[in-house]
Amino acid sequence: MNTIIIISVLPIVLLYLGLYKAQKALLPVTVIGLLAALGFAICQWTSKDTAEPIYTGMLLFNNFSVVFSSVTIISTILILLLSKGYFERISRHTAEYYAIILFSLTGIIVMVSFNNLVMLFIGIEIMSVSLYILAGIKKSDFASNEAALKYFLMGAFSTGFLLFGMALLYGSSGSFNIDTIREYVINHPHIDPMFYTGIALIIVGLCFKVGAAPFHFWTPDVYEGAPTLITAFMSTVVKTAGFAAFLRLFSACFQPLSDFWTPILLVVTIITLFIGNITALYQQSFKRMLAFSSISHAGYLLFAIVSLGAASGNSVFVYATAYSIASIIAFGGLILVQQQGGSDNFESFNGLGKKNPFLAFVLTVAMLSLAGIPLTAGFIGKFFMFSGAVSRYHIGLVIIAVINAIISIFYYFRVIIAMYFRADERAELTVPVYYKVVFALSALATILIGVYPDLIARFI
Amino acid sequence: MTVSILLFLPIVAAVITALLKNGIAKHAALFFSVAQLVIALIFLSKFVPDASTQFVIDVPWISSYGIYFSAGIDGISMVLVLLTTVLVPLIILTTYQHQYKNEGAFYGLILFMQAGMLVVFTALDGFLFYVGWEAALIPIYFICALWGGENRIRVTIKFFIYTFAGSLFMLVGIIYLYLQSPDKTFDIHNFYKMTLDVKHQSWIFWAFFLAFAIKMPLFPFHTWQPDTYTEAPSGGTMMLSGIMLKMGIYGVIRWMIPNAPLGFFHFQSLAMILGVIGVVYASIIAFKQKDGKRLIAYSSIGHVGLIAAGIFAWNIAGVQGAMIQMLNHGINVVGMFFIWDIISRRLNTREISQLGGIAKVAPKFAIGFLIILLGTVGLPLTNGFIGEFLLLKGVFDFSVQHYVNLVLAAVAGLTIIFGAVYMLRLYKNVMQGETNPLTATFTDVSGTEKFTLCLICVLVIVLGIYPQPILHISEAAVTQLVNQIGSKFTM
């Protein structure tokens, strides 16, 4: 359990470093600490998946947790590498940023390894409270304040649903423990109606956290108002963790009751796909487009839960990894364009292909991956999702997904078109070394996973 | 010796070419593509023309989903591998006169596209087939959008979305087949062995049909094609019309009909009628075109319509005709676009009405144009003849066997007459008559242009007089495939 311990002690160390004005040490210490946590997590991986619950049955750090901790930690490292020089521009208290992001990550690690509903709730709360602060961390910025307030009000509301759902589950099954609840579901032919209500409320709470429609209203404003790097963190790491928790809960406890909740989630999935894609189509701002496209990706990720099966964990893992690394490139590119060009409209990408061939190339790879074009990781993710859904005979759903994939081409290709085909006199952007490293690694990973998915697709 | 060398060399070549500077890149691309041709010819010399699949490579790729990197060459693939490896160097030669900005990227993309197409033509695994299918699409999108004409952005995104939509439905079809297959693999031979009922096969048929009909393109899925051909740079147009549309035709022969035979036979007449409508419709529209490049684009739709009709007849004559016609159409259409590229580059116009009398000032060019044009029209002793003859025979046999009236075959036969009418009219308007001030400045072909034109003319005549070797390559494989599916139908 060293991973959780390291990640929760690390922010305290960072706060002290901040106190003693060791600004230069913040990033290296964070990265080294996270790498250590990652190393400990990977060591827990066992080929037969024989992990036992720990802390009196509260947590179970099995392969599923290892894999999702790893992907969230790696994404966080990449995002923090992009943050060099970014937070300094916003405020003088940079240690706060690192510390709060890491607190949030602690919550995430708990979320992906819970074995008890209480731990799920605590994990989600640790993560969310940190995010409320992060969204509003630009103290004097109006949009940032609005984002924080909106996020906090809606988040608190949805947490209420989640908690109420858990209470109802407890009321009918008599336990918060995942194993006990599963046994209750299997052994009772007549499930209490209260239990069903509990599932429905939990769906509402979790759908809010992952930003699935019709509980998505907070996402565009929060994503736009928050500092771009925090948006990147929210739409990649947090979303991945939300789905991991969602999947863990449903595959562990509610699988036998899929007749009840599958229709609900089917409707949610379809609405999410259409709302995310069609709204993204009309955006003029790249950042807002990414926010809406993240809603549609939540729709694709829901496929794994709708067609719950042995391969679901793997599908979510591959899809979330592909989506995270592509988004990190996209947000990184956005930060550079925004800082040096002043605007985040699609027009501000015009002519980038000529002036910054490398940046344009990695952004193209990212867009192709998000659109799900073969030879990129995004395609493999979509392929796994579609296979899962077809195997459960959700053919109609897959056809809707195909239509949405076609719609998404329009807005992802707008970026490519702007970069390469629309000429514009523009100054060359300076790409810092850290950015170059992150871009190169992410693009390479996207292509490698796209060409040879067995690299990551066999860990769950 | 496995087919992998043929599939990976162009990727390596593409990366190398993309990094080279202007001026060297085109020579490197030509060198690599000729090397590819040599390798393909070595394969051809070792190829035994029976129905078996040779030079097979089969290694696990994505183990959890039963996906193998599995490819090989049989008679049908061999013809298309030849088509690709012969045409790519030719196309690169035809672009020698152009000065593309960022040349390395242009030729790199062409070579990368070649890799994708070769994967499509040799894949024995459904997943690999799909990946190759899309891998060929990305480069051509960038070729058209980066080096194309004025309306390129709007036109190419339409093209991309159209084809991408079709192929996604095909992907769903392939996944469905995979989930139904007994040992959960994407192996094509496993797909062939399955016996689904008519209803499921019909869905699979439509999933594939959409993808292939858009790619070919078949009426009424052709609307992207004339715009894209017109806006694309000439090299891109040649890649599209010469090789890429054959991916659709090949897909029908290899993937659509054998995987969903019952579904196919259910809709056979409809599919044939679509093909024949395409022939007539495209010919009539071609007749009315003012822009020569558009005219050739529409004539290509007509030719493809006939090839499709011949395949949908699903007898040996029809499919064999399609095989040889794929090769010959590729050569002819590249020739035609090259001719038109020479004209429009020199005179800066594509309007037929502004031309005339070029034959007087450029006799060598006139001879080349005439030979290629006759090949396109399908005059006996040129390469277009044998293919069209076999295709029409196939359609005719089908009509007789199935007791449908012969109108279908007769209408399909009109293609030859129509083709002759609009093509000869084109020749008359462009080459004959009096020279005007514009065309008087036309200089005759020389150097690389002359050499390339000669090569194409030689291919047109040689394949016209002696097509037997090509027919022989695919004969055994086609016979086996046609009979195998036919027997399923009569069962």
Describe this structure in words.
Chain B: One of its GO terms (molecular function) is NADH dehydrogenase activity. Chain B: Residues 125-408 form the NADH:quinone oxidoreductase/Mrp antiporter transmembrane domain. Chain B: Belongs to the complex I subunit 4 family. The complex is a heterodimer of chains A (460) and B (491). With 460 residues, chain A is mainly α. Chain A has one domain (2-455). Chain A is built from 19 helices and no strands. The mean pLDDT of chain A is 91. Chain B has a domain at 273-491. A two-stranded antiparallel ribbon of chain B has the order 1-2. In chain B, helix 3 crosses helix 20 (468-490). The two termini of chain B are 39 Å apart. The A-B interface holds A 311, 314, 368, 373-375, 379-380, 383-384, 386-387, 390-391, 395, 398-399, 402, 405-406, 409-410, 413, 417, 420-422, 452-454, 457-458 and B 61-65, 127, 130-131, 134-135, 138, 142, 145-146, 152-153, 157, 160-161, 164-165, 168-169, 171-172, 175-176, 178-179.
Defining traits:
heterodimer, A: 460 residues, mainly alpha, 19 helices, globular, B: 491 residues, two-stranded antiparallel sheet, 2 strands
Query: Topology as H/E string of chain A?
Result: HHHHHHHHHHHHHHHHHHH
Please report the two chains with the greatest interface, counting residues with C-beta closer than 8 angstroms to the partner's C-beta.
A-B, 32 and 29 residues
Q: Report the helical percentage of chain B.
A: over 70%
Gyration radius of chain A, in Å: 21 Å
Unreliable residue runs of chain B: none
N-to-C SSE string of chain B, H for helix and E for strand: HHEEHHHHHHHHHHHHHHHHHH
Instruction: Provide the low-confidence segments of chain A as ranges.
Output: none
Shape of chain A: globular
Distance between the termini of chain B: 39 Å
How much of the polypeptide of chain A forms β-strand, as a percent range? Answer: under 5%
| Strand-pairing-aware structural class of chain B | mainly alpha
Structural class of chain A: mainly alpha
Shape of chain B: globular
The largest β sheet of chain B comes out as: 2 strands, antiparallel
Cα separation of the termini of chain A: 19 Å
Pfam families (chain A): Proton_antipo_M
Protein name (chain A): NADH-quinone oxidoreductase subunit N
Transmembrane segments (chain A): 6-22, 29-47, 59-83, 95-112, 118-137, 149-170, 194-217, 229-248, 260-282, 289-310, 316-337, 358-381, 393-413, 433-452
Keywords (chain A): Cell membrane, Membrane, NAD, Quinone, Translocase, Transmembrane, Transmembrane helix, Transport
